[in-house]
Amino acid sequence: YDNHYAGGIGTFSQFSPKVKLIYIPNMSTRAYAYYGRLFVPVLVEQLRELTAAPGAVSQITQPVRGEYFEVGLTHSFTEALSGKVLGYYTQENPGMDNSTIPGTNIQTAVNIQQIYVRGVELGLNYDPVGPFSGYFNFAVSHAQGVGPTTGGFLPAQPTTTAFDLDHDQRITYS
């Protein structure tokens, strides 16, 4: 159970279960499924600076509430070489992102009505006996917001279409 109290803003709470099921068909293969209910409270540092900034309004930022799903498969090909494939999906209502208060360098958390993040990740890990090892990781991900941006002591910014979030990383690899 999550409970967050911030003076002057209020109390927010939520039941946040987390469940992970693991299936091990043999010693070298594992499959899993995970579900977690998200609750991320808002940081309230610099609250006086935010409310005194030009153009500030009294609308507060709500905590993130959402659901996270992940399924994955790992396999050890040899004692030194292993691989993984996983997929994930997050839906937040409301979601949270950062915005800059006009005329300042202050970053503040804002709500976006709905946030969706979807992705797939592939990885290989090579770890032989000895001083050298290596890995390769490839991911395709999409972070998208839908609905108005509110909170952060800023005026609401209505939107009519879905938009990519600033931390949207379509293709990453290392």
Written overview of the protein:
The protein is mainly beta and about 170 residues long. The protein contains one helix and eleven strands. It has one helix at about 45-50; strands at about 1-5, 10-15, 20-25, 30-40, 65-75, 80-90, 95-100, 105-125, 135-150, 165, 170-174. A hairpin with a 4-residue loop joins strand 5 and strand 6 (about 80-90). The longest helix is centred in the N-terminal third of the chain and has 6 residues, at about 45-50. The two termini are about 35 Å apart. The relative contact order is 0.17. The mean pLDDT is about 85.
How does the SSE layout of this entry go?
Elements: E1 2-6, E2 10-14, E3 18-26, E4 29-40, H1 47-52, E5 64-76, E6 81-92, E7 95-100, E8 107-126, E9 134-150, E10 163-164, E11 171-173
Antiparallel strand pairs: 1-2, 3-4, 4-5, 5-6, 6-8, 7-8, 8-9, 9-10, 9-11
Number of helices: 1
Low-confidence stretches: none
Percent strand equals over 45%
Task: Please give the alpha-carbon distance between the first and last residues.
Answer: 37 Å
Structure at a glance:
The protein contains one helix and eleven strands, in the order ββββαβββββββ. The chain has one helix spanning 47-52, and strands at residues 2-6, 10-14, 18-26, 29-40, 64-76, 81-92, 95-100, 107-126, 134-150, 163-164, 171-173. It starts with a strand and ends with a strand.
